[in-house]
Structure formats: structure tokens, C-alpha cells
UniProtKB/TrEMBL annotation:
<keyword id="KW-0805">Transcription regulation</keyword>
<dbReference type="InterPro" id="IPR058245">
    <property type="entry name" value="NreC/VraR/RcsB-like_REC"/>
</dbReference>
<keyword id="KW-0238">DNA-binding</keyword>
<dbReference type="Pfam" id="PF00072">
    <property type="entry name" value="Response_reg"/>
</dbReference>
<dbReference type="Pfam" id="PF00196">
    <property type="entry name" value="GerE"/>
</dbReference>
<protein>
    <submittedName>
        <fullName>Response regulator</fullName>
    </submittedName>
</protein>
<feature type="modified residue" description="4-aspartylphosphate">
    <location>
        <position position="71"/>
    </location>
</feature>
<dbReference type="InterPro" id="IPR011006">
    <property type="entry name" value="CheY-like_superfamily"/>
</dbReference>
<dbReference type="InterPro" id="IPR000792">
    <property type="entry name" value="Tscrpt_reg_LuxR_C"/>
</dbReference>
<keyword id="KW-0597">Phosphoprotein</keyword>
<dbReference type="InterPro" id="IPR016032">
    <property type="entry name" value="Sig_transdc_resp-reg_C-effctor"/>
</dbReference>
<dbReference type="InterPro" id="IPR039420">
    <property type="entry name" value="WalR-like"/>
</dbReference>
<keyword id="KW-0804">Transcription</keyword>
<dbReference type="InterPro" id="IPR001789">
    <property type="entry name" value="Sig_transdc_resp-reg_receiver"/>
</dbReference>
<feature type="domain" description="HTH luxR-type">
    <location>
        <begin position="172"/>
        <end position="237"/>
    </location>
</feature>
<feature type="domain" description="Response regulatory">
    <location>
        <begin position="20"/>
        <end position="138"/>
    </location>
</feature>
Length: 244
């Protein structure tokens, strides 16, 4: 482990208490290694370890973690199915699900984001990046550059866009009629890979106003994460792969 990969010495910024974590991975050495790393990190508390998706669902209901580290490919109940059930069955607030994967352009990851996971992280990421990712999703922030989510979503929606005939300026798609015009504008910019600050600059409004519009959009559409909002924007046709 290099110095750059070592966990920070002090408590995580802005942490009011320890972040309660559930680790789900069918490989014992990976799971135990992650748990050991997290237990040694300040501001982290491992409340459970699951060897498969079904056990992850049961432990999440029992321990109510803040963040779930979810292996995406597991036998039996997959990480996607487990993510769906954990979020659907959770008592508010639902835990944030951070998917661990070997490939970033992975249909399983896309499915997990669609199911409500907050983001994904490659398994070969160093300890420092892992801890930063956990802190980010726990705080409700974007895990990585929005363009990364956009690239993944585009890769798995491009095929469905081939037959779409909607006029590009026809207004929000029918599935998004609950949104105000400004909310649809914010969602479109976020889905195109802009950060909140960049969207605010484009629309000549404050960053706080962008966050408010995005939060209202997610509430109206029953979404649990920014990544899920990006998926919805593409699947409804608000944004098309390759669009500006």
C-alpha cells in the first residue's frame, strides 16, 4: 500500500457520527479484506458482512446501514436484485448502495444504477478512493464526474434510441410531465454530464436552486439517486445518446 492509498488519519470531513456499513461480496477474501480496511478507518463502522444477495437483504433490514458496498455479480440473488429489494423494503432513509465491479462499462452496473444504486467503484480502486467514495455517497454528493455515469448509460441506451422519432424540441416526454419546465431543464443538463455548478451557470441560477430542482425532480419521479435520474432522462428520451 502506498502513502497515497492509506486511509486518512483523522475523522471524515462533516461526519456527525460513524458511517454504518454493510459489505456484500461472495468472495470471502475480498469481503473480509474490505471489512478489515473499513474497521481500521476512522469514522467507519462495519455492521454486517453478507456472502450473497439474499443475506445482504436480510442484514440490511436488520442492521439499517447508511451505506451498502454491493458486489454486482453474485450467485443466487444478484447485486441488482438485492439493491432493488434493499431500497424498496428500507425504512426511510434508505441506505446508499455503492456497487463494486470489475468493469466500468458493465450491463450489470447499468442495471444497478437503474435499480437505485448511487454509484459504482472499480474493485481495483485503492483504499483512499474507496473511503472517499463512501463518504461521498453517504453525504449525497456525486461519486465521480457526471460524465462517467453518462458514458455508461449511453452505452446501454443507444440501442433503444435507434427507432425513437420524438422531435428534439417537443418538450418533456410524457413520462416526465409531472416536472416543471425548469426541473426538466435541470434534469437534462445533469444527464448530459454537467455538474450542479455548471448547470447553474448555464441556466443563470444559483447552485442551491439547481439542487432544489433536482431534489424535487427525484421526489416526483420516485428516484433515489442522481445516477438513477440520469438513467431515467435517457430512457424517457429527454436526452439521447450522442446529444450535445
Amino acid at each position: 500500500m502506498t502513502d497515497a492509498d492509506r486511509p486518512p488519519d483523522g475523522p471524515l470531513p462533516g461526519a456527525a457520527g460513524p458511517i454504518r456499513l454493510l459489505v456484500a461480496d461472495d468472495q470471502f477474501l475480498v469481503r473480509s479484506g474490505l471489512a478489515a480496511l473499513l474497521r481500521a478507518a476512522p469514522g467507519m463502522e462495519v455492521v454486517g458482512e453478507a456472502a450473497d444477495g439474499a443475506e445482504a437483504v436480510a442484514l440490511a433490514a436488520r442492521t439499517r446501514p447508511d451505506v451498502v458496498l454491493m458486489d454486482i455479480r453474485m450467485p443466487g440473488l444478484t447485486g441488482i436484485q438485492a439493491t432493488e429489494r434493499i431500497i424498496a423494503e428500507a425504512v426511510d432513509p434508505a441506505p446508499r448502495v455503492l456497487v463494486l465491479t470489475t468493469f466500468d462499462l458493465d450491463e450489470y452496473v447499468y442495471g444497478a444504477l437503474r435499480a437505485g444504486a448511487c454509484g459504482f467503484l472499480l474493485k481495483d480502486a485503492g483504499p483512499e478512493r474507496l473511503l472517499a467514495a463512501i463518504a461521498a455517497v453517504h453525504g449525497g454528493d456525486a461519486l465521480f464526474a457526471p460524465a462517467v455515469t453518462r458514458r455508461l448509460v449511453e452505452a446501454f441506451t443507444r440501442m433503444t434510441e435507434a427507432g425513437r422519432t420524438d422531435a428534439p424540441d417537443a418538450g418533456p416526454p410524457p413520462a416526465l410531465t409531472a416536472l416543471t419546465g425548469r426541473e426538466a431543464e435541470v434534469l437534462e443538463l445533469v444527464a448530459r454530464g454537467l455538474s450542479n455548478a455548471e448547470a447553474a451557470d448555464r441556466l443563470f441560477i444559483s447552485e442551491a436552486t439547481v439542487k432544489t430542482h433536482l431534489n424535487r425532480t427525484m421526489s416526483k419521479l420516485g428516484l433515489t439517486s442522481r445516477a438513477q435520474a440520469v438513467v431515467v432522462a435517457y430512457e424517457t428520451g429527454l436526452v439521447t445518446p450522442g446529444g450535445g
